[in-house]
Design goal:
By secondary structure, the protein is α+β, with helices and mostly antiparallel strands. It contains five helices and seven strands. Strands 1, 2, 3, 4, 5, 6 and 7 form a seven-stranded antiparallel sheet that branches. α1 runs antiparallel to α4. The radius of gyration is 24 Å and the shape is flat. The N and C termini lie far apart (about 80 Å).
């Protein structure tokens, strides 16, 4: 039995440890409608980690590994390079349907003059990008984490402990020296 999804995540971004995401309704009378939600809960570390896993792709497309750009260097080797530390991911956007599906990854890059925004061009999911298979696996993982956030998976919530105070005796105040 095939499970039919009710929504499809189209975009997501993280800012101030909160996730904003957009999705398309896939069933019902309003099928095709797109909605956006701004999360107010602190994201779970798994969601942040899934976004961090996309960093290698924005760095690669930006030319951070120019001497490795057109060869088959495994991603694990590229992820060990110092150049990767300059990049961070803020979000992704998926467009198109089936055969024309593509993703745009956005983030930032530290430069000697400050931080600048970096965005990949559309990377077609059926195109010829060198690390397309790895990109798809990591994108699916990020989408899955956004769906879990949508369903309530957030950072652990800590309960405020209560402190009990001992009632002060009026004599304690009067017996103290000034």
């Amino acid at each position: 039995m095939e499970i039919t999804k009710e929504v499809e995540i189209k975009n997501a971004s993280i800012k101030d440890m909160q996730c904003t995401y957009g999705y398309e309704l896939l069933t019902g009378k309003t099928k095709g409608d797109t909605l956006s939600r701004g999360g107010v809960h602190v994201i779970h570390e798994d969601l942040q980690e899934s976004f961090n896993e996309l960093t290698i792709f924005i760095a690669h497309v930006d030319g951070a590994f120019s001497s490795w750009a057109n060869n088959q260097t495994p991603l694990a080797e590229l992820e060990e390079k110092e150049e990767l530390e300059k990049y961070s991911i803020s979000g992704f956007r998926i467009s198109g349907a089936e055969e024309n599906r593509s993703v745009i990854i956005s983030g930032s890059k530290e430069t000697p003059y400050g931080t600048m925004a970096v965005t990949t061009p559309k990377l077609k999911m059926n195109g010829n990008y060198l690390y397309l298979d790895e990109l798809e696996v990591r994108l699916v993982a990020a989408i899955s984490e956004v769906e879990e956030y949508m369903d309530g998976k957030t950072a652990p919530q800590f309960e405020q402990e209560e402190i009990e105070f001992v009632e002060a005796d009026d004599n304690d105040f009067e017996n103290n020296k000034v």
